[in-house]
Structures are given as C-alpha cells and as structure tokens.
Design goal:
Length: about 350
C-alpha cells in the first residue's frame, strides 16, 4: 500500500506538468495580445526568398540526419528491417514529435510503425532509447561548448552568471565524455534497469552518436541564424535554441508553441526589433515544423497501406535474428563492419 506522501507525489508528477503548461500558454496568450501582428506579417513578407529556401533545405537535411539515429538502434538491437524503412519511420516520427509532442511522435508513433512491420515492443523501446541518447549526447557537448566558449547574456531573470554558466558547461562536456569513456572502456556491455536491458554502444559507435547528435543541434541553430539574416552572432542564436529545447521538455507544451518565441524575444530583443524576431520564428516554424509535417502525413498513410498489403499477403518475415545470426554481426563475424550502420 502506498503512503499518503507517495500518493501525493504520484499525483503531483502527473498534474504539475499540465498545470505548468496551462500557465505558460496563458502567459503566452496574454503577451500575444500586445504584439503588433500586422508589423510581424510585413517583416515576414520581407524575408529574403533565398534565406527561406536555405532554411527549408537545412531543415530537411536535419531530419535526414536525425533519421540516422534509428540506424544506430538498428545496428545495436540487430533487427533486420530494411535501412530505407527504418529511415522513413524515424523521419515520420520526428515530424510528429515536433508538432504533436514526444509522447505521440517519439514513442507512440514509433511503436505503431515498427510493430506493424514485425518488431517486438521491447526492441522498439530500445530503438527509442538509443535515439534519445544520441540526441541528448549531442546536446551535452554542443551546449556545454557554447556555455564555456561564449556564455549567452540572456535578458531573463533568475539565470546564473557567466561564471556559473561556464561551470555548467564544463559539467555538460564532462558528462558527454563520461558516456564516451563508458562505451569505450567498460567491461560490462549491458546496462540494466529493472527488467530492461540495453546493449552498450562500442567506442566508435558512441563517437558517431556524439557527432550525429551534435551536428543536428548545430543545424537547428544555423536555420534560425540564417532566418535572422545572420545579424546576430551564431553562438547566441544557438544558445537560445538549446535553452528553448529544455524549456519545451519542462513545460510539456506541444510544439513548444509560444515558449520558443517568448525565449527568443526575451533573449535577443535588445539586438533586433521584436517584430523581426517573431517573423523569423514564424518562418522557422514553417520550415522546420510544418513543411516536414506536411510530408510526413502522406508518408505515414503510405506506410500503413504498405503494412496492410504485407499483412494480407502474409509476407512479413521474422525481424529479430536468431542468436546464431547475431553472432555474425560481432567483431570477426562474416558481416562485421562497424563503420557501416546499414550492415
């Protein structure tokens, strides 16, 4: 039986995020009423077409790079779903994740799409875990480097001083290096939590995780930097986007609606007019949220239709290989090739 304190904490964990999200959205709605939206639309129409095309192109490159995160899970779990389908599922899920929230895109949709093609739930959960590790490993070293090299001077109440930001940055870099060292030197090759087991990546694979995860965050910062006309230094823009990512996780607001815009205005409002900042963020949402989502919706429908046809013809084969087949994937085996994620 749970104690009263345990029950209270259980309810707090479930109710508090929604209360916080409601409070944030209320504040955002209040502030939105004070914005000169005609001036924002005018600034948006004055955006350079070349910058908009570049932002859209970098957005699609970022999604393609993120999709490779699931190839890491494919390699480490040993499932045999084709590389093209793995990349497609990851890209579709990422688009839903950004627009509808992580529970829908990152977990629920991946479960739906992967299990439709024969993967067991445990394997899908492992793939999601590897993707999250790759994403936040990149966040740690990129964010830590920004804080150490060029700590942002954000006009927000309650943020630590530049000295403390550098300390936080060093801790973040240290955490990223600790993961790389664990993967490289740990004799124990499995991580355990309750009944769950997760294969530890090799040192080389962990290095790829760090490179891919960090490159994705650098691309996100570059998209906003371009849409701002490169009139604000890149480290400051990147720092704001990294901070907005954490704020989105904390507030649980779907699509980070309003939170992202509020942070950008509060942080960079002393460098550019508010209308131009909001226009750039609207363009960013169109390029990084709506464009991929518009592509992901029909792609999801096509994936479901293909899975139904496969079920009808009974051609869905067993995905997870046997122990004998997996031994071929180990160093020295017939198909060992750590440098190629699609082996």
């Amino acid at each position: 039986m749970r104690s009263a304190a345990q029950r209270a904490w259980w309810w707090f964990k479930r109710v508090a995020p929604w209360v916080l999200a409601g409070l944030v959205l209320t504040l955002v709605a209040f502030e939105a009423r004070r914005v000169d939206w005609p001036a924002v639309w005018l600034a948006l129409r004055q955006q350079s077409p070349g910058w908009l095309v570049a932002a859209a192109a970098l957005s699609l490159i970022s999604y393609a790079l993120y999709a490779t995160f699931d190839l890491i899970g494919r390699r480490l779990t040993g499932h045999r779903l084709p590389m093209s389908r793995t990349l497609g599922i990851a890209a579709i899920s990422y688009a839903f994740n950004f627009n509808l929230g992580s529970w829908v895109g990152s977990l629920a949709l991946r479960l739906r799409l992967y299990t439709r093609w024969g993967l067991p739930t445990e394997t899908v959960v492992q793939i999601v875990a590897y993707s999250m590790v790759t994403n936040w490993l990149g966040y740690l070293w990129v964010g830590g480097t920004v804080l150490v090299w060029a700590p942002p001077t954000l006009a927000l109440v309650g943020l630590p001083s530049a000295g403390w930001l550098r300390v936080i940055g060093l801790v973040m870099i240290g955490a990223a290096l600790a993961y790389l060292a664990l993967c490289r030197y740990s004799p124990k090759r499995q991580l355990s939590w309750r009944v769950h087991r997760l294969e530890l990546a090799s040192g080389r694979m962990a290095s790829w995780q760090a490179a891919a995860g960090g490159a994705n965050w650098l691309l996100i910062g570059a998209i906003v930097w371009i849409l701002l006309g490169m009139r604000v230094d890149y480290p400051s823009v990147l720092g704001v986007m990294l901070l907005a990512a954490v704020a989105g996780v904390v507030t649980h607001v779907p699509g980070n609606v309003g939170v992202l815009e509020a942070l950008v205005v509060a942080s960079l409002g002393d460098r550019l007019p508010k209308t131009e900042l909001l226009a750039a963020m609207l363009a960013y949402r169109a390029a990084y949220y709506l464009l991929p989502f518009a592509l992901a919706l029909p792609a999801y429908g096509l994936s479901e239709a293909a899975a139904r046809r496969a079920d009808h013809r009974r051609v869905v084969r067993r995905i997870v290989p046997s122990a004998d087949e997996r031994r071929l994937e180990q160093p020295g085996g017939e198909r060992s090739c750590w440098w190629r994620l699609w082996c």
